[in-house]
Amino acid sequence: MQWVGVPKLAAAVSEAGGLGILTALTQPSPDALRIAIRETRKLTSKPFGVNITLLPSINPPDYEGYARAAVEEGVRVFETAGNNPGPLIKYFKSQGCVVLHKCTTIRHAKSAERLGVDVLSIDGFECAGHPGEDDIGGLVLMARAIKELKVPFIASGGIADGRGFAAALALGAVGVNMGTRFMCTVESPIHQNIKDKIVASTERDTVHIFRTLHNTARVFKNKVSMEVVAIEKRGNAKFEDVKDLVSGARGRIVYEKGDPDYGIWSAGIAVGLIDDVPTCEVLLRRFEREVQEIVGSLNKFVVGADGGAACPVSGVKAKL
User: Which of 116, 156, 201, 299 is deepest in the core (most CB within 10 A)?
Assistant: First the structure.
């Protein structure tokens, strides 16, 4: 949610009953993050968190500075993701914070457990951004997670409606994490053209880049991303061959100016499930209603001791 997890959206999500998240690296410095946290507090009295994502970089951001600034401003919920989160997790736990760590594999989730995280976000291959290199979908990841993890987990990737939420709960998740869906809300800071593009898209409108660089990212399929894919397909591609195309500054301008082909921007295959641009309040009330209806409707598949209910497909009664 780079460039998207800003005070207006984070506060709106929290006000609607979710947990809004500020993305620390959207801000240019730790001091700017302090200001963003204060702005969010003016918009909501409810809890919100801060995400710090650690990614390979020639000039790494001041991760420790961002973490310290957020803690000093009173934030007590943190989402971490990326490489070597151990030092940050240790610091947050020493300050009495709740830490949620995002993982794309069960082995990484177990490592995070050992580091002392409170909650895990299990990120399936359907997600926007970096899905890891193992290409495992959320259905299998969550089924593994409930069997092998000791701490609670939430589902991430490919969820944009009540059906996905209900399915995640059935698989053992205690909640869901959504990025692409919240991009397409009234309070999202991105240009209306991009929201309209998401609504018009299908699940086939994303593509993976950086596959050959072993740093896979799922992004929206546009002229720039397809040019990156073409360069990688030629063989022996290096980051220097695509760095101007994938510039974060160009991606930010996409959101600001509304030209979907200007740069690289993240989107999950959940774009295929999004057909409107509601407020966060309307969206979360809809989710609650849909999940309740879906979970309630599953009773028809349960056969009582008297064999009362019949299979809705075959009509045959059978005891379970």
Answer: 156
